[in-house]
Amino acid sequence: MDIRERLLKMVQTFFVTFTASMAAMYVYMLIFGIDTLHINNITAVFIMSVLLNLTVLIFYSKKEISRLQMVARNCIHLLINIMILLATAIHMGWISPHQPMQIAVFLGLVVVIFSLMSLRGFYQSKKLADNLNRRLQERYKE
């Protein structure tokens, strides 16, 4: 995948990231009984979503990478995302660094959403690969 395709994919996934982040914020607010949502929070989630999408550039490579390299990149991606999210959450006052339960719930939400979005990407790639394989089989049967 060249850089242009990667950037287009980033734009496409931004909205999924933003929606998932807003859903996680809603769940977090329900868990901790927070009943007000300020525009500053929505703006912070928007900026945070942009930063999270930029981290997808970690996966850019002009050559094919091995499965081990992909796993390593996924781990690095998750760690960078956690750092961005924790820094934003602490800066915005969404979590207190002195409240382990808040941090645990927040990290749990991050891992769940990251896993769901990774599975979504995996299944989209698998669907594309299956479709391409089916077309190749049909073409070479003739």
Q: Can you characterise this structure?
A:
With 142 residues, this protein is mainly alpha-helical. The protein contains 4 helices and no strands. Helix 1 (3-32) runs antiparallel to helix 4. The longest helix is centred in the last third of the chain and has 42 residues, at 100-141. The model has no long low-confidence stretch (mean pLDDT 84).
Largest sheet descriptor: none
Question: How many helix segments?
Answer: 4
Give helix and strand order, one letter per element, not per position. HHHH
Strand content: under 5%
- Strand pairing plus helix content: what structural class? mainly alpha
**Spans of at least 5 consecutive residues with low confidence:** none
- Helix percent reads over 70%
Any idea what the shape is? elongated
* Cα Rg: 18 Å
What is the number of independent domains? 1
Number of strands: 0
Span of the ends, CA to CA:
30 Å
Mean pLDDT: 84
